[in-house]
Amino acid sequence: MKESDIRTRLNSIFQDVFDDDSIQVFDAMTAKDVEEWDSLNHINLIVAVERAFGVRFTTKEVTNLANVGEFIALIGSKLS
Amino acid sequence: MLTHDTSHLDYFRLLAQSKRYDYSACTRTLRLAVLADAAVPQLVPLLKVLLAHKGIKADIYLAEYDSIELDVFNEHSHLYAHRPDAIMILNSTNALRLKYYRQSAARATFGEAVAARLANLWDTIQHHSSAIVIQSNYVLPYERQFGNFDHKVPDAFYPLVLTLNAKISEMIRARSNVLVNDVEALASYVGRKHWCDERLWTLCKAFCSLDHLPLLAQNSVDILLSTAGHVIKCVVLDLDNTLWGGVIGDDGMEGIAIAPDGEGEPFQRFQHYLLELKRRGIVLAVCSKNDHATALEPFRSHPEMVLREEDIAVFAANWNPKPDNIRYIRETLNIGFDSMVFLDDNVFERQLVRQELPEVIVPELPEDPSEYVRTIAELNLFEVATFSEEDRRRADLYRDNARRQVFAATVTDIGEYLRSLDMQVCMKRFDAFHLPRIAQLIQRSNQFNLTTRRYNLAECEAMMNNDAEYLPMYVKLSDVFGDNGLISVVVLRKQLPELVVDTWLMSCRVLARGVEQYAMNQVVAFAKAQACERVVGTYIPTPKNGMVREFFGQFGFEKVGEAADGTSVWHLDVSAYQAPAVYMREIT
Fold it and tell me: All domains of chain A, ordered by start, with CATH?
């Protein structure tokens, strides 16, 4: 899957999880940039991404994620 | 309880629904508190939306993570300030395991100490609140320290949890304010291997995997619904290819499959399952497109049939549309559509019934009849909050009543009819033996119910023991067709010079028999004996109790006030009461 496809799909997952169609993800985006991005929604986000892409993250991978750019790279590495 | 199948129990689908749901359509509210030693915030929206599907708006207090004791032992806590109707306590095996690991000494008594702690929680709650407690049991651990030999080492973690669960069940049986949330049954059904997502436990102490959270929510909602009186009373059955293989009209008695082996085995097994339901009080009815006599024949004379004619309360076999027959069955049994389940192998009939009678629960049946029982069992349709000896006879009570109706149609004079029933009645103060049935009737009666105050078992017990304030009465009735059992509850409160009707409800099985006339005569007699000048009645309207709006008026009560919500207050001057005729003998 191309990086741009991952980004498009991730964007729609963000919109679903945070219930906000105006969200546009960007590489430097973190929880600080989305008001609804609390610990509860963080878990929802991780599990929704796992389901949508058919991948599975380790605890360490989830804990070490710094921003959306890294998230996209991580998904890409799981798919390749 | 699920309407069709388990496919709608999807976490993200329910989560999205909960955000957009129109909760204003709910007609009742439920105040719920959720306490857990794991993180369960994700459970809250699921509970909300699943309850809303049944018309109940949930007002939920979610306690802080792992603060069960803080909330329960402090009488000024947020928990009690929330005034919950029900308190859910969820205990996680992951949290328990950690405590077990840390306690290297005193392991022999570890399980007992955990059980004692739970009992203390429940009893403390009962002291501060009338809420019903819904306590989870523990999911069995997957690790076996000694392998199979674990069972010889009672303080190993796995056998310890086994024993603890048995202890929880035992303690709950002795308490009227606690019900069990059998989380272990859910986990073992989906598989312990899949139940918990250890990564989510590591990251945020999640109670279980998000995939299975809807199942936990549904199971909890099933319990809550049953405590609120939502229970299934009747299963309506198709015949051909549902109760037996083949078509009786075409294949004949020898042709249908119902033998204990081969093609007939699934059908016979299914009939056994249904007969067990009947034995615990679920009424069975037949709704089939067949000639009446042809359809009845297997029930009368097929040697392999498990269900017999006397097991079926209403037998509707004809060529009318099925929704019409279900309406007829409902009318004969005098129950609500929402307490009926319709089972039919034919997808067309299922769709038709869903369309015309959306309240009736119509499960999807699998193509292979060998999976009928499992498919229906998965939906957990028959949850109850109480079970009394009377339930074992309930299906027969309904059957007798259906026969009374047929008999009544042949009689023209109502007085003559009532006399011919040779009814025997008694009205007595609550006693310990009848408490489970009393509490159950209070939970379940919707139509003939003046105030719809849902007292639970513990509250009934408290009224029973409060002689100074309460006259809590029940009524039993029997007649030539059989024993109707305990069919009415009247709770009176003494407030000199008034006698206040706090609760008055009756099973619709005994409508128009004169029970309420008998009971009112008794109430007025009580008032006189207590030197009360006036009986005060209240009618609180609900979507279902319109039939008793004018109840007090028919006895000569005067309406003295009506609020904007339709609640009306009625007064009766005891000295002016004119006792109506009753056609029943009083027994002691």
Answer: 3-79 (1.10.1200.10)
Distance of alpha carbon B414 from alpha carbon B408, whole angstroms? 9
Nearest to A59 among B42, B203, B206 (CB): B203
Which three-class secondary structure string do you get for B181-225? ECHHHHHHHHCHHHHCCHHHHHHHCECCCHHHHHHHHHHHHHHHH
Q: Report which residue type is found at B537.
A: G
pLDDT at B305: 96
Name the DSSP class of B339: G
Model confidence at B260: pLDDT above 90: no
In chain B, where are the structural domains located? 6-227, 234-378, 419-586
**From 3.60.10.10, 3.40.1350.10, 3.40.630.30, 3.90.1150.10, which CATH number describes the B419-586 domain?**
3.40.630.30
- Quick one: tokens of A74? 């991580």
Residue B381 reports pLDDT greater than 90: yes
pLDDT tens sequence across B501-558:
999 999 987 887 889 999 999 999 999 999 999 999 999 999 889 889 999 999 999 9
Residue B477's pLDDT is: 93
First to last CA, chain A: 8
Residues of A in contact with B17 (CB under 8 A): none
CB contact under 8 A, A44 and B16: no
Q: For residue B74, which phi and psi values (nearest 5 degrees)?
A: -105, 110
- Out of A16, A19, A43, name the one closest to residue B200 (CB): A43
Residues of A in contact with B16 (CB under 8 A): 16, 19
Distance CA B485, CA B476 (A): 5
Return phi, psi of residue B434, to 5°.
-90, -5
A 31-50 → B contacts, CB under 8 A: 39-40, 43-44, 47-48
Probe site for chain A from B199, B202, B209 (most A CB atoms < 10 A):
B199
Candidates B16, B199, B206; nearest CB to A59: B199
The least confident of B29-43, B405-419, B455-469, B489-503 is B405-419
Please tell me the CATH code under which domain B234-378 is placed: 3.40.50.1000
For residue range B14-48, what is the model confidence (pLDDT) as tens digits? 999 999 899 998 989 999 999 999 999 999 999 99
Give A19's contacts in chain B (Cβ within 8 Å): 16, 19
A51 interaction partners in chain B (CB closer than 8 Å): 12
